[in-house]
């Protein structure tokens, strides 16, 4: 490291925070972790991220960096020789950034719709969105820019694997809570997700599935009670 301390403000179940924790682990960077209560956010978090007021925030010395995708690129650019996360080729970097936005713009909203679904029609519509997103990733892994690869990053994890992997893992837990069947008919996507989840570094940062399901189940109960 460069001798400057790293501190990460997060919440244990957040896929956005898990992205940053995995990147730091892959880079071999030590950091202090501060668990936030999102129902009672600390003064430090509100000061460090006054715009969005949410986790994750990475504090590098006295410099706060917010938003998980921004943090990932910052980490990679600051420590480029430690387990590079972004490809060197400009065309491939553009493809990676495009699909990173796909995670935020498509995958997370479909999961939000699923866990908020209050009846069978809403649930079916949300499941359809999740499956369509999986089909797009299946096609990309089979026939698109990343075809024939073990991971989106090649033979090792890259920034796109980090961003999409935790979203895809979360989807399985959300489906269990919403009692929805997402299917297993996307073999390339399923193989990629299993390999992602099996990586030792991923295993070290993934929260216990039963604990995550319990959290999501409580959240869903509160949402439906307000409907």
From TrEMBL:
It comes from the Eukaryota. Residues 89-215 form the GST C-terminal domain. GO terms for cellular component: cytoplasm. It is an enzyme of class 2 (transferase). Keywords: Transferase. The keyword Mitochondrion does not apply. Belongs to the GST superfamily. Tau family. This is glutathione transferase. It comes from Spirodela intermedia (Intermediate duckweed). The lineage of its organism: Eukaryota, Viridiplantae, Streptophyta, Embryophyta, Tracheophyta.
């Amino acid at each position: 490291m460069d001798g400057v301390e790293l501190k990460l403000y997060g919440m244990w179940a957040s896929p956005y925070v898990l992205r940053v924790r995995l990147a730091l682990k892959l880079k071999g960077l030590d950091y202090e972790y501060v668990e936030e209560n999102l129902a009672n956010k600390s003064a430090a978090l509100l000061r460090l991220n006054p715009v969005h007021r949410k986790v994750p925030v990475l504090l590098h010395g006295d410099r706060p960096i917010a938003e998980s995708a921004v943090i990932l690129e910052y980490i990679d650019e600051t420590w480029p020789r430690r387990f590079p996360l972004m490809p060197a080729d400009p065309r491939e970097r553009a493809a990676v950034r495009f699909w990173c936005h796909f995670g935020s713009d498509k995958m997370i909203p479909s999961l939000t719709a699923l866990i908020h679904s209050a009846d069978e029609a809403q649930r079916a519509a949300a499941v359809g969105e999740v499956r369509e997103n999986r089909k797009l990733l299946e096609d990309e892994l089979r026939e698109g820019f990343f075809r024939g690869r073990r991971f989106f990053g090649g033979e090792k994890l890259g920034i796109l694997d980090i961003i999409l992997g935790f979203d895809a893992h979360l989807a399985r837990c959300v489906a269990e809570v919403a009692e929805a069947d997402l299917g297993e008919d996307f073999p390339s996507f399923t193989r990629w997700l299993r390999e992602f989840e099996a990586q030792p570094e991923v295993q070290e940062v993934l929260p216990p599935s039963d604990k995550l399901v319990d959290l999501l189940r409580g959240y869903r109960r509160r949402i439906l009670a307000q409907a």
